[in-house]
Amino acid sequence: MAKKIDPTELTVEDKLKALYELQQVDSKIDELRVLQGELPQEVKDMADIVEGLKTRLTNIENDIKECETKLSEMRVKTENANVAINRYKEQQDNVRNNREYDNLSKEIEFQQLEIELAQKRIKEFTALLETRTEDKKKTVSDIEEKTIDLNQKRSELNDILLETKEQTETLLLRAGKIENNIDERLLSAFKRIRRNARNGLAVVTVDRDACGGCHNKIPAQRQLDIRLRKKIIPCEYCGRILIDNELAAEAKPIKVK
Question: Highest mean pLDDT: which of 26-35, 92-101, 229-238?
């Protein structure tokens, strides 16, 4: 096993070479991830849609159960009211005075109103039940359709991940080894610059007297300082770490199978 290098023992030139090599590895990892395109996000979005449809289906099924329960209650209520009406009518045949007859008539009238109200509610719940049943059919169909699309996208993504898995793992292992040889503060700065850079480049060369990242002109004296490799010099416009082309040419090429 190779002995870990003490980052404090590295010269500025060594640090710049390590940073550039790490940049190359990270850029290669970025390229492999680009191969996935929008698939990871598409898979996530589709999975969220399917879960949302399943939640909707659960809510619809709960509504259907509630409608069925209410319909059952209204039918029982109607039956009980009819039984009560028949009982009151029988009692009317045996009343002793008009007052008792009138009281029973009021009870019959009340039960008839209860029946009318129950029948109205039955119609409402029946209509709602039909609507929610149709909603359930459509939602089930949507779930089946979206699940097929989701499985297809997942299959595409898995194929790409399988193709690039070994390369990505190799590169990540190499990146980890390089990071171990870079002091924590410098590594933290490198990662911060990468996060903020649109193209993920934290270390760039001076190309045609300009920053290879933002393409702003670099003063001649600053270019000389960069070539001397005595200190780490960031671009004053974009903050990327600048190196000379000769140092970049000396770096190890990044190759993966």
Answer: 229-238
